[in-house]
Structures are given as C-alpha cells and as structure tokens.
Specification:
There is one protein chain. The chain is an alpha/beta fold. Helix 8 packs across helix 10 and helix 8 crosses helix 11.
C-alpha cells in the first residue's frame, strides 16, 4: 500500500479510472458488509479501520461471507474472486479516501467520534466526494455542523447483515443538497438495495419503530408476561415478522440498542424510549447478544 501523502489541492475533475471508488471507514460488522455489497455491484472499494487487526478481520469476513455464498450456490467461484479483487485494505485514512467518489463511515454509534472522523475526512477526500454516515439514529445536522461542505453529507443507514438485507434508509439533513440526495438514492439502487428517503429526525423511521417494539418486548419479559421465546414467537407467527424483537435485539447488540434508546429518550422525551432496567443490567453484565454468545437467547458461538 502506498505511503501517506499530503492532502492535494481541489481538482476540477477526475479521470474515468478514478471515478466510482468507494471508501468504507470502519471494518466491523457493518463496514465489511457495506464494502462487500459495493464491490459486488462493480465498485472498487478501499476498507480502512484505525485498528489494523480489525481491518484484517473485516477483509477475512468478506471472504468468509462469499465462501458461504459459494457453498449455498448463490455465488459462483468466479464471482467470489471478482468481488475479492475489488476490495482492498488501506492502512491510513488518507490512503482510503484520497480518490473516493463516496466515503461511508461505519464506526461505533458515538456522536463525537463520528464528528471527529468527518472533520478528518473532509480535507483528505476530493472536494466533490459524497460523505455518508451509517448511523441508525444520530442527527445528520449535528454530524455536519463543523464541515465546510455540509451539503455533501447524508445518511445511508444499512441493515445487518448487509449482504442479505435489502433496505437502506437515505437520510437528508437540513443542509444536504438535492444533488447529494439524488446521488445517494442512485447508489443504493445501484448496489441492489431498496432506498427509503427520510428526513433528519431522531431514530429516523426504522430505528424509532424497531426500538419502540424491542423495548416493549424487554419490559414484557421484565414483568414476567411471557418467556423470551414466546414473546418472539408471538411476533413471528402472529404478525409474520421474520425475527422476534428480542432475538433481533441480540443480533443488533444490547449495547447498541441501549445507546440508541438513551439517545431517543434524551431527544424525544417521554417514557416510551426510557431503557428498561433489565436492558441496563444485561449490558453491565456483558450479555450483549450474539456477539458475546449470551443475550435474551443463547447463541452457539459469539460473532
């Protein structure tokens, strides 16, 4: 990989060879999934993580996902090799974003962390690059507050697992330009996902609805209304949800859901988003769901 270089002066345009590159910052569950689907759609992708070991694991997981696709007959060996050839790792943030048409951050759901990251990305990326956040609930306006070009920022909220889930929320902040919004929607369709456009409101559409259902399910469990298995079965069989709210919370991560519910409670008020004590206690005990092997359900292996 090339050595870091000083940020370049703004350019009038890019060569066809450069156009279309995607940078994904954060190689965790969401980041490597986003990199995979962008590469599968024909984009050259550079994946970066501040932790080199996380970057290595993220690149390995892309290969593992594709291997499983081959074993299931959903991906040909040739397609696997083509996708892997399009995904590379970048040692530095500058290397990742220097030639990017689109930069997508997928770092932990912390406002100050994401704001600091975009402040670092903006002077390193081309001046016309789209900047996208994979946040599931944080304010786009707050993330864009200190940027020189806030019109270039929007939300692209993917769902886990990214290579399977079709929905992407395209979130426009008050400063997001129409051109940025149109390019975001176009990119989502290009990678074979279904966009819904929502305005910058706490929790957007999916998190606000999903968290409300998940928190009520936790309260029911806390009150002894029914077991976790039966609460989930009620929604799966009675309402045809593919996954019950407690199992989904395990998949998302109890710590992630706690952080979102705290943010929604703080911004929207009322009692509906106040985190149940059971959720707080389980997070404090390290029972975070699938990634630790223990949550509202037991998982055979941590993720």
């Amino acid at each position: 990989m090339s050595a870091p270089q000083e940020p370049r002066a703004p350019r009038e345009g890019r060569t066809p060879r450069e156009r279309g590159q995607v940078a994904v910052i954060g190689a965790g569950t969401m980041g490597h999934g986003i990199a995979q689907v962008a590469a599968a759609a024909g984009r050259r992708v550079l994946l970066h993580d501040a932790d080199p070991s996380s970057l290595e694991r993220g690149l390995a997981q892309v290969g593992a996902n594709l291997d499983k696709g081959v074993s299931l007959g959903k991906v040909t060996p040739g397609e696997r090799e083509t996708v892997l050839a399009r995904v590379g790792g970048a040692d530095t943030l500058a290397d990742a974003v220097r030639e990017a048409e689109l930069v997508i951050e997928a770092v932990p759901e912390k406002l100050e962390l994401k704001r600091a990251l975009f402040a670092a990305i903006e002077p390193l990326a081309p001046p016309d690059a789209l900047l996208a956040t994979n946040t599931s609930s944080l304010s786009i306006a707050e993330l864009a507050r200190d940027l020189e070009r806030p019109a270039n920022l929007l939300g692209l909220h993917f769902f886990n697992p990214v290579h399977i889930m079709k929905l992407v929320e395209v979130v426009h902040g008050p400063a997001t330009s129409e051109a940025t919004l149109e390019q975001g929607v176009s990119f989502v369709r290009e990678i074979g996902r279904e966009p819904i456009v929502v305005r910058d409101s706490p929790g957007f559409a999916s998190s606000r609805l999903g968290v409300a259902l998940g928190l009520e399910a936790i309260r029911m469990l806390e009150e002894g209304v029914a077991s976790a298995e039966d609460i989930d079965r009620a929604m799966e069989l009675g309402y045809r949800h593919p996954m019950g709210p407690l199992r989904l919370t395990d998949l998302v991560g109890l710590d992630v859901r706690l952080g979102i519910s705290e943010y929604l409670h703080e911004t929207l008020g009322g009692e509906r988003f106040r985190p149940p004590e059971l959720l707080r206690r389980m997070v404090a005990e390290g029972r975070l769901g699938r990634k630790t092997g223990h949550g509202f359900h037991e998982w055979n292996e941590p993720d």
